Every structure is written in structure tokens, then in C-alpha cells.
Amino acid sequence: MSKTLFLFKFYVKNTVLTFLPCLTILLLASCSDEKNTVLFDLSCLDVEKAIRSRRIPSGEFQYGDDRFYPDERPVSREVVSAFEIDTTEVTNQQFKRFVEATGYVTDAEKGLSEQQFPDLPPEFRVPGSVVFVPPTDPDVTNDGDWWRFIAGANWRNPQGPDSSIEGMDNFPVVQVTYSDAVAYADWVGRRLPTEIEWEYAARGGLDGAKFTWGNQPHDEANSRANTWQGQFPFINDGSDGYVGISPVGCYDQNGYGLFDTAGNVWELTASSYHFDRQMPYRETGYDPRQPGVSLKTIKGGSFLCADNYCRRYRPSARQGQDITLATSHIGFRTATDVPL
């Protein structure tokens, strides 16, 4: 959904921009067997001591999949040059260092300018971003019923001004736009991966497999990623250990040593999104469902992906993301070229 369309929908509904308490960041247990314990300083991986980046060897792989959503087609064989990619998503701690060193202000913290959105009333141009809020009406049918624009939501306060990231250094940073991710990547001397690079790395050498771990289904008895368990969007029972975002590195690495390439948070890539990958290339991306919106491809799915909705915690899965819209379930990791 584009930022303009999203905000206009709320304008029509006369929704009051306000803040909500932290509703979806409650975490059930850590990576231990203890359940139903609310914790806010979880850490499954010592990011400071972990290997930050992995060299992905050059090779050929199956790009896409014809067994799932139409925009994952057509399947092709792609050759990828060797590159490096972060072992985990960029964390709050890493992004905080960037902000402290540069004084950078994210898009969600700036708000919308009158020049960008002249038809929106001033109260809808305040700083803020989009947050997932489970609906209470059992008859809801579309994503506009569980996404809310919250004034004051940003990377420091991902659920709104009454929330914070205190004690969450090792959680992936969210509420960042494409421009924010590129700014961070430039600062560390890296870049965002392309969609093809991301998918190749996420597969971990399992060419053509459905999931990053193989073809076995993701189930409650053997949680392989942070996804939604239960009936989306109403009840997430947290049987994988989390109701909301988890710290990085809580699940097994893939074959290339990467964490969280399935679930947890969607990840921005450098590639423009095209619903039909056979269409002529457009730098701004194109999706007939979001006309006139500049889109980048996001990969990997998130903690909101469920078997009954958005089953996109697979390497071939993809979506288009408005480059101006920050949300509570999208982050990123960086990459770089390697010498030949």
C-alpha cells in the first residue's frame, strides 16, 4: 500500500492520529523452554562477537518459484558473482551508532512535507509511521483494518511514543524507509543487496528448495523461523517463542551461515519491484495494484506471515514496498562486492 493511499484512507475514516501502548512487541519466552515470560532484553546471539558478514560464493541457482504466488514467476536460472552480506539484519544498536555519529534523521521522524502531499490536511503530515495493531472485529477483510498510522512512531519508538527500544539492542531496526537503509549502508561503506543476491544467499545452497532450511514444513514442534502461529490477524499463540519481533539470531543459520532470512522482519533490497518480472524494467518499479508508487522489493517475510495469510517466509517470496513508507515489520541487511 502506498503512503498516500494509506493516509487518505485514514483521512476518509476521520481517524485521529494518536499513539498506542506497545501492543505487539510483547515477547513470549526467549530461546529457552520457559514460556509466557514477558522479557524486554532478550538476546539470542552476541552480535558484537558474532561474524558480521559472510562471503557468498559465486554460482548459479533457481531464481523464483512457480508453486506459490504469481509474482514469483517465471522461474529462471541466474548466475551470481561472489559478494558479502551481513549475517543478521541491521540491529537497533548498529543503527543507533550511525545516528549518533551522523545526526541522521529518519523519514518517519521528519513527517510529510506539504510539497510532497499537498492534498493532505496538516494533522496527517505529522511525524509518524505505520504499526500493526490486531483487529477486534472478526469481520475484517483487508489490511487497512490492522495497520494504523501512529503519530510519533519511528525507529526509536516502533509502536508509538509510549514504546521504546530500551533493552532491545539486538533486535532488528524497523520503521525505516528505503532512503534510511541506503543512508546507513553508505555510512558503513556498503550497499543493499539486489533481490537476486538476497534470494541466492537466503537459499544457503539449497537450490530450488521451498524454504531456507529445505522442503520440510515449518511447524510448531520444530520452529525454524519467527512467523505467526494461529489465525492471522487475530491470535498469535507465540508457540515459536515470540509474539512480535525477535532478537536477531534466535533460529538456526542457513547453509551460508546467515540468520533470519525467513520471517522476523521483511528486508529491503536495492531492486525495483515488478509484479510481472517479464515486463520491461522500470527504475521506479511497477505494480498495477499501486499505480504511480515507487516500489522496491522486500524479501523474507516477517513475524506477521501465517499459513492462512501471507505465506511468504520463503526465499522466492517477494513484495513491493513504497519507498516512502516506514512500518513496524520491515528492516534490512547490507552487502558489498568482493574482489575478483
How many DSSP-defined strands?
11
Shape: globular
N- to C-terminal separation?
40 Å
CATH architecture descriptor:
Alpha-Beta Complex
Calculate the mean pLDDT score and round it: 84
The percent range for strand residues is: 5-15%
Low-confidence stretches: 4-41
CATH class: Alpha Beta
Q: In DSSP terms, counting alpha (H) and pi (I) runs of 4 or more, how many helices?
A: 5
**Which value, in Å, is the CA radius of gyration?**
19 Å
Task: Note down, in words, how this protein is organized.
This protein has 340 residues and is α+β, with helices and mostly antiparallel strands. It has a single domain, classed as paralog of FGE (formylglycine-generating enzyme). The chain is built from five helices and eleven strands; from the N terminus they run αββββααββααβββββ. The chain has helices at 3-12, 92-102, 107-110, 178-187, 195-203; strands at residues 53-56, 59-63, 76-80, 83-86, 128-132, 147-151, 266-272, 295-299, 318-322, 330-331, 335-337. A four-stranded mixed β-sheet has the order 9-8-7-10. The longest helix is centred in the N-terminal third of the chain and has 11 residues, at 92-102.
